[in-house]
Specification:
The structure holds two protein chains of two kinds.
Chain A lengths: L1 H29 L2 H4 L2 H24 L6 H6 L6 H6 L5 H21 L6 H25 L23 H16 L1 H13 L6 H30 L10 H26 L3 H23 L8 H4 L1 H25 L14 H31 L8 H25 L7 H25 L6 H26 L4 H7 L2 H26 L1 E7 L4 E4 L2 E12 L3 E12 L2 E6 L2 E5 L5 E4 L1 E4 L3 E12 L4 E10 L2 H18 L17 H6 L1
Helix pairs in contact in A: 1-3, 1-7, 3-6, 6-7, 6-8, 7-9, 7-14, 8-10, 8-12, 9-10, 9-12, 10-11, 10-21, 11-12, 11-15, 12-14, 15-16, 16-18, 17-18, 18-20, 20-21
Chain B lengths: L23 H16 L20 E3 L7 E3 L8 E6 L4 H16 L4 E6 L3 H11 L5 E5 L3 H5 L7 E5 L5 E6 L4 H20 L1
Parallel strand pairs in B: 3-4, 4-5
Antiparallel strand pairs in B: 1-2, 3-6, 6-7
The chains are: A alpha+beta, B alpha/beta.
Chain lengths: 660, 196
Amino acid sequence: MIPELGHFALILALAVALVQAIIPGMGLLRRRADWMAIAKPAALIQFALVLLAYGILTYSFIVHDFSVLYVANTSNSELPLIYRISGVWGAHEGSLLLWVLILSAWTAILAMYSKHYPVDMGAGVISVLGFISIGFLLFSLFTSNPFIRLFPVPIDGGDLNPLLQDPVMAIHPPMLYMGYVGFAVPFAFAIVALVQGKLDTAWARWVRPWALTAWVCLTGGITLGSWWAYYELGWGGWWFWDPVENASFMPWLTGTALIHSLAVTEKRHALRNWTILLAIISFSLSLLGTFLVRSGVLTSVHAFASDPTRGIYVLAFLGLVVGISLSLFAFRAWQLRTLTPFSLISREMALLTNSVLLLVTMLTVLLGTLYPLILEALGGGKISVGPPYFSRVFIPLMIPVVFLVAIGSLIRWREDSLSTLIKQLRTPAILAIVFASVILLLLPGKASFTAWFALLLAFWVINSCFVQLQQRLRHSQGLLQGLRRTPRGWYGMILAHIGLGFTVIGIALSSVYSQEQDVHMVKGDTRTLGEYRFELVDVERITGPNYQADMGTIRIYKDEKELMTLHPEKRIYNVRKNVMTEAAIHSNLLRDLYVSLGEQRNANTGAWSVRLYYKPFILWIWLGGLFMVLGGLLAVTDKRYRLEVKQEKVKLDANHVTAS
Amino acid sequence: MSQPVESQVASPQGQRPKRWVYLLPLGLFVVLMVFFFFGLGLNPRLLPSPLIGQPTPEFSLPKLSNPDELFQHTDLKGEVSLLNIWATWCTSCRQEHPVLMKIAESEEVPIYGLYYKDIPAQGVVWLQDYGDPYRENAVDENGKVGIEWGAYGTPETFLIDQKGIIRYKHVGPISWHDWETTLLPMINSLRNNNGV
């Protein structure tokens, strides 16, 4: 009975979404305040209904209601409580419901803050979000209903994929989804601007916090995902250019371009159409990402064929959303253009160049991701393009981007002179050369040009941040006052750019100076890696809540002093019989020691295959991600976004206003 | 601070993009969609590979099992064999791997591997962990030989006859169905033709 209630709530939510989409939308076109007033209550009711449906599905997981097909497929009576809660989004149907939940939550928050926007803008945005919600609710109800019953009721469920039974993996998908869905809001703002054929000067100020929030969630989600891959997959790799990873990376690239282009639009009212195009592309890629990851198109060759309705629906929905918004762009964007002059040497130009480069990077990633998919759709089988392609195209495109980051944040708006710029950047450049060279000399191992060059770029960015700080304080009376007067958005930018520098350092040093050994060890064996000595002390059988595992005990010595003991595991999950590697890692800012246990090679001698890694500075990759997230959060909370619209009453048809 | 001059009215003198420029994103998207739509009806397996019917490209590469020994194209002559292009970074290869293991167990045909654009040590461990279906692997670390074979992705598998002539190319992972309905019958007929 209870799951049916959830199903019913979802149907009601669809009805409310129709109201939320159509009536305020018509109100916007016909300029009727009474119709537009429906937007807020409809958004709140829709959120309540989706929340109810989601709550009921979670309840079905918690009480082990295996009469629900989705629960039976993705849960098990041995599954710990936390993974029963996170298991709700462990497969396609539930994660789709999570998507709708987050979308309706964003819409509800926007509705609560609607006094920050003019009436027509608020109503229009809620209407567009309502249309997106309709699409997803239809998809959920007709092709991926999570409330379908199963009869006869199985005694036990098929269990959650063991890869997902991990705390980080439990929060990684919702983070990504919050990012994906978050780009729906800038998208909706862009659509309303195109429909109205006008773009208020405050438009960019309204959109920026939303775009930033989405970007923060996406950055956080990607960082967590990469960290998870590193410690969970047992290969010591942290990025695989896997289609699923690319699916989240592409909207990140254009989202990054978007938040920078929005800055230009807010400060200088320039690049409006470019900003709108980036908003449309970012959300389109988010949709693509959602579908690629969970629809089964990517995980299995046959999923597409076995449920053709899903695949066709996905394509049709994507085509509709992208087609309509790009048509609007084609015919309306022209009216929004502005003539805000800026010279070749200006901040506008630097930010524009970088956003174009980011877009091109996205296109190369898209090509590498879709090419195997297209080939597969054409019947050519499933192939991997793989890291060789991506590293060849990605790195050359990223070098100018990172180079321009320092310039773009220092150079003046509108026009600057090359000589001032050179004077400002001389010191950070020289210091970057010094720092990069000194660090290279301090590092053990052969000096590498790649590492030096990457360090140079990273310090170029980081040093330029300090130049900016110095410039900002030069004109203020006191140091403290200057620091206090500086808006949070500025600190956010500095933090995020320093984060970028950290990530570059982490990537370069860990990939150049990593050492690894894949060895066979029996108890008591030792192996040396760099200045560390690893001893396999023991391997014992242990029992977890829903798995059996071989747990190794590996002691690590440095200079004959015992440093630590690590416990890598090889787990076999009871239900699905999947074998999972749980690597044991000791991290600090200078290096990671990474140990993972392979299989028992020889039962007689007790030899185990063991992987030992020494990865210098790898933590900096995710530390940089953390800095970017913190920077984004600081910028979102900048107080200028909290300004309310001072009763910017929309010009409404007088008759309709009195009629209401 | 001088406030820069702003104008909402664009000048037509081509300083801003022309009107048709705004159609470009839509145009690009439509072209992509049309390609998808018509593309779904095509079958690229029917496209001829220039290598079919040709002798295998010449190569001489270190063996994965022992880098001091060389694996050469001439080693492929003498019996019907499969050459599988793979790498550890290739997720589809992981998917294909159990099928290759089953084929190897059936002992119908030897499988050789071209270990493509990857670090040798990783491949050794990979085979140790997941099982080794290959009789021998040639290490093509920089991918030059793969290009000669026309590899544009992994996995790809070539069927080579007794004289070292390429008879068939399979793009993407081999499924058990592919093996039973396409590869095995071709292998059997190649063997029979030679016997007569």
